[in-house]
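DM from R.C. (forwarded with permission)

"hey, sorry to bug you on a friday — could you get me a structure for this? deadline for the figure draft is monday and I only need the backbone to look sensible"
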Amino acid sequence: MSVARLLWSPELLRYDFGHGHPMAPARLDLTMRLVEAFGLLREPTLEVVEPKPASDAVVQTVHDAEYVAAVRRAAATGEPDPARGLGTEDDPIFPAMHDAAAHLVGASVAAADAVWTGAAQHALNIAGGMHHAQRGAASGFCIYNDAAAAVQRLLDHGAERVAYVDIDAHHGDGVEAIFWDDPRVLTFSVHQDGHTLFPGTGNPADTGPWATHCAAVNIALPPRTDSARWLRAVDAVLPTVLREFAPDAIVSQHGADAHGNDPLTDLSVGVEAQRTAARWIHDLAHELCDGRWVALGGGGYAVVDVVPLVWSSLVAEAAHAPLEAKVPLPESWRQAAEEMSGLPAARTLGRGAVPWQRWSEGYDPSDATDRAVLATRRHVFPEIGRDPYLD
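My reply, with the result:
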């Protein structure tokens, strides 16, 4: 059994909405170039496996058959289907749309297979994390919901409880909606408040249909939440709810768009804070579910100075070969990144540790982030017998 399996093929770069679209394949290309430049592909704890596209039957485990047919039809004809979110500004049609999106699903499902069968403790698909797609519609750059497909695959294998953890700046609405009525799945999302950012959902009161337990946990943070407050928010909720839920496996989505340099969001969460959150999720996977952890990419549109740094760190973390903070970025990678993008590349991986305070050290009612965390705790913790104010 390998420690970590990375599902990767250059074919995954075909998920391409065209010139000028924020979901640029360069995000993935530069990430894999940095993974290689850091020497991670030579780590004995990491193996790279080429995924295959998912069949229609696999895609239809989380999508309506009529929708899959509509995606195929739109890709073949180029005709928009706005009722299903196809041919919109967010999700323009391109000829390889079905095949490329199915390939993302195939990679995430293969990751789920690997961790459940024991072929690997951890598995990654950095091209995945398309968390906005609904059962019958595309949304927010997402055609098929590979994250939901990975969760469903684990359930189909026999997992009794799967936790989905989403740290993208946007609410993981598609995964939440798909599993809203399934008590075997807990969805956790920490994101910018939906009143100020797409998709407009993810309120702390949205905890699911069940009277006995939460199906969904949402932390809706105010714009400009910084690294220290973001880490405080995650720590104030995530470990408690996961320990109470006791999952058999964790699927996490690591959209890097909470960073202050991201052009589409208004949070201010640095690379080091996102690396820290990945480490926490990794540790919880070992603590709670024998290491069964599927890690996915997601959003992130600062394609040179953020996304490759966050996701190469994620690969290193999963391979048990974590990169040191402030490590210089390889000069060969910096030159390639600047040539590809025309933008200046970062010089180091991050700025080092982020000082932050645990929730138990005191609640500040004047702090907007603390008020957001408290709103979540008030809605979630009473259902699992916890103090809604302070531990």
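R.C.: lifesaver. The chain has a mean pLDDT of 96.
me: no worries. Residues 2-50+105-384 form a domain with the Arginase; Chain A fold (CATH 3.40.800.20).
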